[in-house]
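ok so heres the complex, two chains, lmk if somethin looks off
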Amino acid sequence: MSGGPGPGFGPGFGQARPREEPGAVPKTPRAAAVNLDAVAAQPEMRAKISAYPGNVTFVDLIEKNRRQSIVLMVCMLALAVVVGGVMAAAISAYGGGVATFEQLLPSVLLGGVAALLFGGIGAVWSWYGGAAAILSMSGAKPITRADDLELHNVVEELSIAAGLPMPRVFLIPETALNAFATGRDPAHAAVAITTGLRSRLTRDELQGVLAHEMAHVRHYDIRFSMLMATMVGLIVFACDAFWRILRYGRLGGGRRGSSKDGAGAVMAVVFIVALLLSLIAPIIAQIIQMTYSREREYLADAGAIELTRNPQGLASALQKLAGDEDPLVDAANRGTAHLFIVNPLRKMRQAHQSLNTMFSSHPPIQDRIARLLALTR
Amino acid sequence: MGGGLIIGLIIAGLFVVVVFIVMAMYNGLVKRRIGADNAWSQIDVQLKRRYDLIPNLVETVKGYAGHEKGTLEAVIAARNQAVSLSGNASVPQRAEAENVLTQTVGRLFALAEAYPQLKANENFAKLQEELTSTENRIGFARQHYNDSVARYEESRQSFPTAVIAGMFNFEKREYFNITSAPEREAPKVSFS
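and the predicted structre for the whole thing:
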């Protein structure tokens, strides 16, 4: 890491390099590209790369990630329906007068349909309205062509490759190495990069990073991740509501004494299932959400290669990001973490990265690099 | 009587469905054809950009390396040839002319390596970045055009849209091929 990161400036105190020399081509000597042959030669990396078939192409990877993210979307929907059905059954059993499982069927169906209905409303809301409300890009400064010719050119080239309108370009005055995309559709898209990352990449690497962001825009990832977040919210809300009803019911619980003998066993089973589900469903929902998020990161990597046809650029940039001690971005939070090229929330030390937790929004960088290098064989 | 009515309704319903399917297929083909046409015009925009940059570049280089007449004249000739073909020539002819231009400009930049003063010139550095970008843009525009043509040709040739395409005379579109490098390779230009 040549010229290590400076002191951590907050937003507003950034070293806005392009503003100091407007209109000039960046003259600072660039850090050289990473030696990818050496990276690929590492035994761990070699093992990861050889896990991919020798003739794998970005088209295969895109198809695979598309398929898997559809499966995850369906899983989330199924979970919502199951939660809705079971909670409704438990509540109706709790109300009393239910002796057999068959009698619970109408409420199960009702709950399932209600979950679908609310899910549908949530989907429509996040698709048409919600995405506009996600991000205020605190600290990010809009960049014009004259401010940074090369950065602007690279983004414009990529928008030509994608056949999309030119997104707005922002610089985040932070030393952290990161970049992100936002906007509810390609016509309202913006890409942003930290000054720290901007100054450390070669042209090819910059192109790779921004292509990853353009791929997020092109795949409507901002909307899809909103949709996932809405579904998680619904499931958490349903489970929470179930607990509240239980507690509220216990206060006025005299009615329950009147239920028939046969109802006891049915109620017990339904209750245990509902209780367990209300405890684990929110966790499962979050695991699905994060698995989906990682899948979309892989998809954006493959989509970047679809645009640039140059896996080395992005791989080399990710290798530089992997070596960074400080990917944290002040402006980031849990709601926006998935929009960044690497997780902006957690310190990603080399040892940390191999730990692929189920709750991580991004795949381990080394796995992403291996996947890109697999395309270069 | 009642049975006849039902059969009539079913046939009418099926007819409506078929009409809708045909419409959707036709519109899909039109959309993809327009996509390919748009992508094609984007290539033209970028090629024009390059034609405009080159005289500037040649002037700048002349100031430092005026005696490299051969290379400079080759660039001008290649540019003029490409411009004259840009009006009405066929796709393969134009592609050939543009390839020659790319190569001669590449040679000009290689030559600039020998002139440190030229390389230090701010205007030259800017032109170099603009031409690097333009080469990338042309490559990407061509890639996007070829992808669009691939999508158009896929639906034009596959059943059942091929029937619609035949009925309404959707014509074949040519790929913008490059002669030397394989198409899948990254459009990578590095003059520095």
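quick notes: The longest helix of chain B spans residues 2-65. thats all i got rn
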